[in-house]
């Protein structure tokens, strides 16, 4: 199992070091702190908006899912606010690029 193979299935995974218990982000097979192996777990599906932007009628946001784990994705509907809770609805790889679709809670 690795990050991209699970993301292709629509599952967002986060790795944690089996030795020092640090969350490893960006995703890697080895800890970027102590270089030991990691274990993979399904990511929480909710987070908080750190920043957002708008292009035409579409909103995009930077979301912190877990301490140190931030992703950029599109918002399906509504007007976002910084600090607002958000849910990750869909993720995957399309045309070689990662995508994350979220909705406001």
Automatic annotation (TrEMBL):
Top-level lineage group = Archaea
User: Which Pfam families does the annotation name?
Assistant: zf-ChsH2 (PF12172)
Domain annotation ChsH2 rubredoxin-like zinc ribbon: ranges: 7-35
Q: Which Gene3D superfamilies match?
A: 6.10.30.10
Record-given protein name: ChsH2 rubredoxin-like zinc ribbon domain-containing protein
């Amino acid at each position: 199992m690795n990050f991209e193979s699970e993301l292709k299935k629509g599952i967002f995974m986060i790795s944690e070091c089996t030795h020092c218990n640090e969350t490893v982000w960006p995703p890697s097979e080895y800890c970027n702190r102590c270089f030991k192996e990691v274990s993979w777990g399904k990511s929480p599906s909710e987070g908080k908006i750190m920043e957002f932007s708008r292009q035409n009628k579409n909103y995009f946001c930077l979301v912190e899912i877990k301490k140190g784990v931030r992703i950029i994705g599109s918002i399906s509907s509504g007007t976002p606010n910084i600090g607002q809770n958000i849910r990750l609805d869909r993720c995957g790889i399309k045309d070689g690029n990662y995508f994350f679709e979220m909705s406001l809670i």
